[in-house]
Amino acid sequence: MLMMLFTVTAAVSAQSVGDQKPDSTAVTTSNNSKEVVITQPEFKGGIKEMYQYIADNFQYPEEAARRSVNGKMEVEFTVEKSGDVTYCGIVKGLDYSIDGEILRLLEAMPRWIPATRNGEPVRYKVLMPLTIRAKKSQKSSMSLIDYMDE
User: Fold this and answer.
1) DSSP letter (8 states) at residue 144
2) Cβ pair 68, 58 in contact under 8 A
3) Which of 118, 36, 123, 133 is nearest to 76 (CA)?
4) pLDDT over 90 for what percent of the chain?
5) What is the pLDDT of residues 52-79, one digit of tens each?
6) Per-residue pLDDT averaged across 91-116, rounded?
7) Structural domains in the chain?
8) In whole angstroms, what is the distance from residue 126 CA to residue 13 CA?
9) Distance, CA of 66 to chain centre
């Protein structure tokens, strides 16, 4: 049985659902000069733990493995006030079988630490590009090779 090693890389950009600016940690409103502090959502344990979650749970589809499908894709999802991940979607797909597997992982993702606005949890939309690289290997399991593109 041919097993595949794969690499998943991601750069996360996010924006709150509503009128806040993307990638903001602090915004000053023009109406009353009151500072509004916005924190982005975070996967529990940080970005490396998110990569590890994907690596540990990604099941490379056989059809995609036979064709050694590689490439970049872009996904989006909303982190709710509760930290639940909802409204998962593929913005730019790679292959229908890989797209389906990534959607499965997103929908099953554990709760995140939610974004906050002035200390109160808020919904937040996350846009995340992913790179999938398959490499032929004699190993009996898949593992994450790199965390980031160089």
Assistant:
1) B
2) no
3) 123
4) 51
5) 998 899 988 988 888 889 999 999 999 9
6) 96
7) 3-135 (3.30.1150)
8) 6
9) 25
